[in-house]
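Here is a typical protein record:
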Amino acid sequence: MNYEYDLFEKFPDGSSLWRACAIGLENARLCMSELAKQSPHRFYAMNVMSGKIIPLDFRQDGFLNQPKTKKRAGSAAA
C-alpha cells in the first residue's frame, strides 16, 4: 500500500515549511533528493494517515555529500 506523505524543509531556527506531497515512501525520498539539491537545510516527511515523522536528511547521511579531501597540517620534513 502506498501512503501519502507531506514533505517539509526544516530550518536552523527549528521552523518548518511544507514543500510538497508524495505518494509512497520511495517517491517521497526521490522528491526530497531533488529538493535537497537546492537547499542546505534538512528535510522530513510526515505520513498523512499515521502522523509518523520520517527523517530524510540526505546530507547528514552522506547521500549528497561529495567525498571530502583532508588537508595535511604542517609540512613533512625529510
